[in-house]
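User: Predict the structure for this protein chain, please.
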Amino acid sequence: MKASRRQFLQSGSAALIGLSIKADRAIAGSFVNDSFQLGHQLRDRTQFPAPKQVQKRSVVIVGGGIAGLSAAWRLHNKGFTDFVLLEMNDQPGGNSRWGENEITPYPWAAHYVPVPGPKAVYVRELFEELGVLKDDRWEERYLCFSPQERLFLYGRWQDGIEPAVGLTAADRDQFRRLEDHIHTFHASGKFTVPMEVGFSDSTAELDRVSFAEWLRAQGMNSRILNWYLNYCCRDDYGATTANTSAWAGIQYFASREPEEKGPLTWPEGNGWIVRRLMDRIGKFVQPNRMVHRISQTSKGVAIFSDDTEYRAEFVIFAAPTFLGPYLIEGMAPLHVFEYSPWLTANITLEHLPASYGTDPTWDSVVMDSPTLGYVDATHQSLRTHIDRTVWTFYWALAEGTPAQNRQLLLDKDWNYWKEAILRDLERVHADIRQCVSHIDIMRMGHAMARPRVGAIFSAERRSLAEPHGRIFFANSDLSGFSIFEEAQYRGVTAADFVASKLGGHRTSL
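Assistant: Here is the predicted structure, written as structure tokens:
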């Protein structure tokens, strides 16, 4: 039975929200980086004015997230300069955008990269160029300082996010059995980062059931184990185990090296990488350039953006793939691509809560919260004493349908979400309102691809990973999920494809 609006707002991710306002420290803030108005122009098929000028380029990259920036980086490193990158927002980076105040830089979404294994060749190449990897050794200052993670459960903090307190013998047995399964899957070589390196049709049956169904079939019914796995799926996919493919749930664990150290992180999160990429290819990036139509012919591609028509030999479409049917003439609607809405907030604290603890920790998570907790932007600081800091707070709206949650993001004002965030933090930090001076909130209606059942092995996803005439799709959602390594891989391989087609070096006039 379909839930009513009232039932929805009384359950799931909305359940914790009581909206009485306490008379504490005045807290300033606003919504930031909103761009849904531009996206809705495309959704509503708004008529745009005719172009006033024409520019010619060999390649036009659409979208300035990690995939688009990686494509530009790769072209530039190959000696190609006859390209332009068009980005809708005023700041490139996509989910790797960052902000900064008088205290510290801070991330807006993606805040780390797991130490890449040997199969993540392109990420390692980039990190060698950026000085993160030197002589096959990771630069210590970029590895997350200890303590890295903690979990609040049963009224106390424990080290690490995997629950280790209050487990029964049955709980421990199920954790061990899951670990054995993951070890077997990892040893098969079929779960890798990037995913295409090991992708095998022999694992397709895992995409036909949800992760929750697969766990039940293995007899894994531990409440605490299932909370942890739900947290992991919400963190990487913005989805619960019930609406995540079992293949993707296993990929989360089995694709990583068992003994990897890390992660790699910076005060501004993956914005640090964006800044270094912009140092190299920033002159090719045009922000505030929303593409509204792409027309392909046998001779080339016409790309319409604001008052300009760009004529190119190839397009690298690095924007989210769901935008394709709204922009590319003749492209059929998509059916298996689904995206999770997210809310992130950067919270300025004038001092730490009394209940914070004695060891400043990078990532703090609260068990049974519908949110994902917060990371501390000053954790990598070498200062011996820190009073003021910035927490980046993460909330994947995983309960309910994505469409319902996108509407909820739009319907509720800043004060509603500010109160929801503070109420969640009060689970652990009773005096949080006396500590916070500022909360800025970013709403992302289509924050990340959700690997629902059947999506990974769908013909639709796999066909979009192939060239479509003169258009090469390159967003991380082509992998079925949104992580840095997949975005970079898709951007680099798209750049390699068009470079091979163009042949030789192309320089702009």
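The chain has three domains: 5-30+339-449, 45-97+267-337+452-502, 174-254.
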